[in-house]
Automatic annotation (TrEMBL):
<keyword id="KW-1003">Cell membrane</keyword>
<dbReference type="InterPro" id="IPR003593">
    <property type="entry name" value="AAA+_ATPase"/>
</dbReference>
<keyword id="KW-0547">Nucleotide-binding</keyword>
<dbReference type="InterPro" id="IPR003439">
    <property type="entry name" value="ABC_transporter-like_ATP-bd"/>
</dbReference>
<keyword id="KW-0813">Transport</keyword>
<keyword id="KW-0067">ATP-binding</keyword>
<dbReference type="GO" id="GO:0005524">
    <property type="term" value="F:ATP binding"/>
</dbReference>
<protein>
    <submittedName>
        <fullName>ABC transporter ATP-binding protein</fullName>
    </submittedName>
</protein>
<dbReference type="Pfam" id="PF00005">
    <property type="entry name" value="ABC_tran"/>
</dbReference>
<dbReference type="InterPro" id="IPR027417">
    <property type="entry name" value="P-loop_NTPase"/>
</dbReference>
<keyword id="KW-0472">Membrane</keyword>
<dbReference type="InterPro" id="IPR017871">
    <property type="entry name" value="ABC_transporter-like_CS"/>
</dbReference>
<comment type="similarity">
    <text>Belongs to the ABC transporter superfamily.</text>
</comment>
<dbReference type="InterPro" id="IPR050166">
    <property type="entry name" value="ABC_transporter_ATP-bind"/>
</dbReference>
<feature type="domain" description="ABC transporter">
    <location>
        <begin position="7"/>
        <end position="237"/>
    </location>
</feature>
């Protein structure tokens, strides 16, 4: 017996004035999937993610979550942005608990619900390694710790879908690796569906079970790759020949769809012709 996907995108178009940002996007995302979106700048990755979040309205097409149309933001979906977007006047714990103060979570709330929410906030503090800074303010934290707070806040309401827009883009390489393993651990525990936008192909392959490559001008899905790695990921898997071969294949396809190969060839010709005088 077949079941419907968690998220279904059919014939999705998005226009900004006369610019076509997304053209006829079709994508099914299964429950508990970890899907990463990659592609050159301007391919519509973030626009697609924001449309899934209900922060952008589609121009045409169908967008469903659990069979229901996505018409705007909803408690079933949470989003984590590249910039941490924490409230600077709230402590770490208060930032994490903030979503529980929204109207959608306070309707018909009982004392038991309040107690359960407090327990979940404490559990998320421990999971993210933030217990010792629970009373600190965002300005007192490193970038990696601020992003942990943002992720914990997104998870506070137990969303079924977690949408992440280059959440680790501003972090250094070592912190990114720690955050990769943390989000994979969170995915195993929470069993949510994650859609993750990144420019980093290695990050996309390490995190995703499925990598969706998008092409620009206009934004569209070009290729979908299944990642041949076990669900339990380890950093040394990035050194495996199969991993690096797939990485080369995805990078080559990004260059081909974005026209960057032509740019490289042009630069080489200009250099050979002496057209670039870097001494001036």
């Amino acid at each position: 017996m077949s079941t419907s996907p968690k998220i279904r995108v059919q014939g999705l178009w998005k226009h900004f004035g006369t610019t076509v940002a997304l053209q006829d996007v079709n994508l099914d995302i299964e429950e508990n999937a970890f899907v990463t979106l990659v592609g050159a700048s301007g391919c519509g990755k973030s626009t697609l993610l924001r449309t899934l979040a209900g922060l952008e309205h589609r121009s045409a097409g169908t967008l469903l979550c659990d069979g229901q149309p996505i018409e705007g933001p909803g408690a079933d979906r949470a989003m984590v942005f590249q910039h941490y977007s924490l409230y600077p006047w709230l402590t770490v714990l208060e930032n994490i608990r903030f979503s529980r103060q929204l109207k959608v979570h306070t309707q018909d709330r009982t004392a038991a619900d309040v107690e359960a929410a407090a327990g979940r906030a404490d559990a998320l503090l421990r999971l993210m390694g933030l217990t010792h800074v629970a009373r600190h303010y965002p300005s007192q934290l490193s970038g990696g710790m601020q992003q942990r707070v943002a992720i914990a806040r997104a998870l506070m309401s137990r969303p079924q879908v977690l949408l992440m827009d280059e959440p680790f883009g501003a972090l250094d390489a070592q912190t990114r690796e720690v955050m990769h393993d943390l989000i994979l651990h969170v995915h195993r525990l929470e069993r949510s569906t994650i859609v993750f936008v990144t420019h980093d192909v290695e990050e996309a392959l390490y995190l995703g079970r499925q990598v969706v490559l998008m092409a620009p001008r206009p934004g569209r899905i070009d290729t979908v790759y299944q990642v041949p790695l076990p669900a339990e990921r380890q950093q040394d898997m990035k050194l495996a020949p199969a991993f690096n071969e797939l990485k080369r294949e995805v990078l080559a396809r990004i260059r081909a769809t974005s026209g960057m190969q032509t740019d490289f060839e042009l630069l080489a010709k200009l250099s050979q012709a002496g057209s670039l005088d870097l001494t001036e």
